[in-house]
């Protein structure tokens, strides 16, 4: 493997110097500069990074100290953060909050990371009167992701209904001049922080995306950056056996007949690490074509929660069942902060049990020829979390070089987004057809075949059935009579005719 690693190291060196490492999108890949701005290929980018860090530190200090206040909160200061974002604009902040937020943070954080109305309602309801002291951070690199836009619109509605001025409590993190940036600027939001073209969503935790929410929770973000920076330095050696990320990528390569990567941190606070890695690894490595255009269908499937909890869920299958995986144990040496430990039986602490479970599971797997990797950190601190993120970011990049794919684009995601748009367009046509039939006198109930025919979408009849079932279940003025279980029996019409839509 040595020559291939030397090629991967060279590619990484070029990437760090500002090469167009994401060729399809014509982009540089600069997340390593975030923790060492001196590496940035020019002084303009270096200053952008430094100024953004300085600005967000000042902003978070002012919010935490109460210098920046919400306009109409009885507490007189911000007490909550509501983060609206999805994918790379949520997973890092969620992981870091779970891993590092103190028990009583200066601001507590909540997330809206979906376009599920009930989920959004739940988050807003949980805030209750504290909405008045909630700082809403809307995070979207592109500034146009529909789920995030919907979350924003829902939150803004809640603010209006509570008689609050959203702009005075809203912060945008997005690329300059994106739709979100323009909205925030025109509406005069409290603050805006930039996302950079050369930082991908899934590697954005150490940009404003991850750093601002972390700082507001009282997490030492400079330590996170230091951890990432030190890890990057260790990963720059071209001596394979001394390079942690290269060794990790080598293990993945060695195990790549087993495409399932089970990540098991034995530490509750690292529960969301595997969820975070799911995007980082799968969106980066899961590719149809290699860089030469050959179909390769690459991928590593990441899952896992935490040990020893998962031992009582699926470890049975790992030990005895289908052998299509390798496990990564994340071992944390420090059980508790110093001075808090006690022996619950002579010579044994609670943490000793956790340790025993990890080692026992590892041995039990090994005895049945199931291989594993162990990543050990001394304790969960901002520095070690920064280092873990740095380790996996670099391992993904190196692995991508080994299998000759572009780790930094996500063409497959676009297909789903486009298809979702087509479903919503079809829904509008269905509504128009139903409206026309429902405006007749007498109303003309239609079968699904008739709806599909009039929509000129006979091939989409199943989707039309789904659209109608969904709308009928949601008080949308659609009346569907018949038996859901036998779609041919269904007849549909609207409860009222919308004359404007008919002629508009
Ligand atoms: O930050 P944005 O532009 O809203 O995108 C959110 C996420 O959507 C994706 O583009 C596709 O899932 C991710 O790569 C990204 O992290």
TrEMBL record:
<dbReference type="GO" id="GO:0097367">
    <property type="term" value="F:carbohydrate derivative binding"/>
</dbReference>
<dbReference type="GO" id="GO:0048029">
    <property type="term" value="F:monosaccharide binding"/>
</dbReference>
<dbReference type="InterPro" id="IPR035476">
    <property type="entry name" value="SIS_PGI_1"/>
</dbReference>
<keyword id="KW-0312">Gluconeogenesis</keyword>
<keyword id="KW-0324">Glycolysis</keyword>
<comment type="similarity">
    <text>Belongs to the GPI family.</text>
</comment>
<dbReference type="InterPro" id="IPR046348">
    <property type="entry name" value="SIS_dom_sf"/>
</dbReference>
<dbReference type="Pfam" id="PF00342">
    <property type="entry name" value="PGI"/>
</dbReference>
<dbReference type="GO" id="GO:0004347">
    <property type="term" value="F:glucose-6-phosphate isomerase activity"/>
</dbReference>
<dbReference type="InterPro" id="IPR018189">
    <property type="entry name" value="Phosphoglucose_isomerase_CS"/>
</dbReference>
<dbReference type="GO" id="GO:0006094">
    <property type="term" value="P:gluconeogenesis"/>
</dbReference>
<dbReference type="GO" id="GO:0006096">
    <property type="term" value="P:glycolytic process"/>
</dbReference>
<dbReference type="GO" id="GO:0051156">
    <property type="term" value="P:glucose 6-phosphate metabolic process"/>
</dbReference>
<dbReference type="InterPro" id="IPR035482">
    <property type="entry name" value="SIS_PGI_2"/>
</dbReference>
<protein>
    <recommendedName>
        <fullName>Glucose-6-phosphate isomerase</fullName>
        <ecNumber>5.3.1.9</ecNumber>
    </recommendedName>
</protein>
<comment type="pathway">
    <text>Carbohydrate degradation; glycolysis; D-glyceraldehyde 3-phosphate and glycerone phosphate from D-glucose: step 2/4.</text>
</comment>
<dbReference type="GO" id="GO:0005829">
    <property type="term" value="C:cytosol"/>
</dbReference>
<keyword id="KW-0413">Isomerase</keyword>
<dbReference type="InterPro" id="IPR001672">
    <property type="entry name" value="G6P_Isomerase"/>
</dbReference>
């Amino acid at each position: 493997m040595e020559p291939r690693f030397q090629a991967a190291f060279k590619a990484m060196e070029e990437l760090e110097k500002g090469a167009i490492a994401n060729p399809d999108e014509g982009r540089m890949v600069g997340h390593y500069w975030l923790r060492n701005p001196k590496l940035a290929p020019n002084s303009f980018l270096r200053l952008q990074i430094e100024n953004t860090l300085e600005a967000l530190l000042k902003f978070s200090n002012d919010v935490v100290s109460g210098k920046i206040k919400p306009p109409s909160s009885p507490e007189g200061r911000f007490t909550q953060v509501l983060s609206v974002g999805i994918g790379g604009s949520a997973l890092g902040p969620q992981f870091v909050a779970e891993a590092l937020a103190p028990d009583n943070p200066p601001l507590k954080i909540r997330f809206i990371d979906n376009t599920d109305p009930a989920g959004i309602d739940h988050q807003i309801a949980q805030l209750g009167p504290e909405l008045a002291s909630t700082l809403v951070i809307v995070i979207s690199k592109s500034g146009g992701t529909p789920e995030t836009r919907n979350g924003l619109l829902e939150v803004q509605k809640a603010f209006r209904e509570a008689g609050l001025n959203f702009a005075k409590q809203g912060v945008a993190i997005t690329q300059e001049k994106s739709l979100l940036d323009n909205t925030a600027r025109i509406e005069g939001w409290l603050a805006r922080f930039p996302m950079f073209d050369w930082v991908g969503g899934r590697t954005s935790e150490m940009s404003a995306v991850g750093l601002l929410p972390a700082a507001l929770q009282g997490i030492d973000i400079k330590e996170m950056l230091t951890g990432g920076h030190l890890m990057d330095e260790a990963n720059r050696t071209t001596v394979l056996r001394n390079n942690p990320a290269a060794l990790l990528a080598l293990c993945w390569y060695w195990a790549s007949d087993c495409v399932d990567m089970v990540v098991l941190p034995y530490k509750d606070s690292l529960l969301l690490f595997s969820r975070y890695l799911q995007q980082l690894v799968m969106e980066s490595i899961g590719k149809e074509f290699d860089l030469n255009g050959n179909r390769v269908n690459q991928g590593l499937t990441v899952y896992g929660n935490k040990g020893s909890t998962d031992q009582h869920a699926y470890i049975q299958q790992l030990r005895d069942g289908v052998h299509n995986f390798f496990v990564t144990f994340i071992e944390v040496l420090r059980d508790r902060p110093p001075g808090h430990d006690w022996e619950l039986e002579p010579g044994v602490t609670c943490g000793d049990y956790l340790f025993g479970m990890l080692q026992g599971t590892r041995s039990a797997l090994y005895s049945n020829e199931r291989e594993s990797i162990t990543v050990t950190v001394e304790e969960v601190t901002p520095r070690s979390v920064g280092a873990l993120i740095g380790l996996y970011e670099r391992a993904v990049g190196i692995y991508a070089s080994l299998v000759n794919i572009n780790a930094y684009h996500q063409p497959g995601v676009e297909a789903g987004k486009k298809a979702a748009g087509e479903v919503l367009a079809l829904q509008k046509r269905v509504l128009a057809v139903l409206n026309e039939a429902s405006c007749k006198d007498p109303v003309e109930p239609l079968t699904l075949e008739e709806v599909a025919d009039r929509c000129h979408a006979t091939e989409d009849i199943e989707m039309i059935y789904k659209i109608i079932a969904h709308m009928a279940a949601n008080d949308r003025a659609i009346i569907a009579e018949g038996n859901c279980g036998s779609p041919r029996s269904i007849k549909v019409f609207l409860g009222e005719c919308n004359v404007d839509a008919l002629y508009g």
